[in-house]
Amino acid sequence: MWTRDKGPVPGFAGQCRQLTEARAEFAWLRAGSQTVQQQALRDFDQAVKNFFGGTHRRPTWRKAGRRLGFRIVGRQATQIRKLSRKWAAANIPKVGWVRLRLSRAVPAAKSYRVTCDSAGHWHIAFAVVPPPIPGPGTDDTVGVDRGVTVAAALSTGELLVCPASSKASLARRKNLQRRLSRSRRGSRRSQKVKATIAKIDGHDRNRRKDWVEKTSTNLARRFDLIRVEDLRVGQMLRRPRPKEAPDQPGSFLPNGRRAKAGLHRGILANGWALLVQRLEDKAPGRVQKVPAAYTSQTCSACGYCARENRKSQAVFQCAACWHQANADVNAAINIAAGRAVSARRETPVRVSLKREPQLTTSA
To answer: Edge to edge, what strands does the sheet with 87-92 contain?
Structure first.
C-alpha cells in the first residue's frame, strides 16, 4: 500500500514497472496476460483522475464474481475469424481461439472487451463508434414525455409502452426470492437460486434495451429535432431522508419510502436515462432538453397553467377552455413547443368562458 513516506503516487508508467517486477516474482501473476493487466492499470489510473477531477466517485475494490471482464487492445484484438454466417472465433491471449455467436457483422475495431453478466453469460463488445443517423430533412419536431405507466408519449399522439415482465415471470421471481431468503448464505443452493434470478433479470434487461434501441432509432429517422424533458434521473432515484419526530428525539416519521421505491422501479423499468442517452448518440446535435416545470399542468391549447387541469394520470382537462386530451400527450405537445413555465414566469391569463344553458322542454 502507498504511504506518504514513499514519495508521490506512481502513475500509469510507474505502475507498469511495478507490474513487471511483480510478474517476475509471482508465477500466478505471470500466468495471466500482461496486456490485460496493463489495461486494468490504465482503467484504474483513469478512475483516479476522474475522482480527483470531481466527475466520478472514489474507485472501489473489485468484488469477486461481480462485473467480471477484461479488455484486449492492439494487434491481438484484430485476430477474428469468421466461421459461418452466425459464428466466428476470437484469439484471446492465454486462452486460445474461442467461438462466439455473431449478433451483427464484426466491425473493424482496434479493441474489444470480454464481460460476464450476472447470469454467467460471456459477451464480446467491439469498441466502435457507429455513424450518426441522418435526419429526414423535413424540419419536423417531436416532444417526448417520459412516464411510468406510459414509457414515452409523443406529441404526435403515439403512446409507446416498454414491454414488461409477465405475471408468471413476476410470480416466479417472487418465489425464488423467498427461497433465497430461506437458504443459507454462501451455500450451493443460494448460488443456484441467485443464478436463476439473474437469468430472469437478464431477460428483462435485454427486453428493455431492445425496446430502447428500436425506439431511439425510429425517432432519429423520423424527426429532425427531438425535445425531451430535462430530468435529473440520478437525483430522482435517491432515497428520501428520514424525518425525525420533533417531540420524540430518536424516532422517525414515515417519509413515503415505500411509495418512492415503487416510483424508482417504474423509472428503471422504462429506461428513462437510457432512452435519452441513445437518442443523443444516434442523433447528435438534434436533441434538446426542455425544463420540465409545469409541462404536465399547462394546457397545450390556450396555455393556462393550473394544478386542477390534471384530473388523473391519463386525463387532462383545462379549467379555462375545457380542452380535453391525454395527459401525457398534452405534456409532450408542450415539450415539443418549448412551453416550459417557470415559477418566476407570469401565469397565462385565464380565459373566462361560460357554457350556454341547455333548454329542456317537457311534454
So the answer is: 80-82, 87-92, 96-101
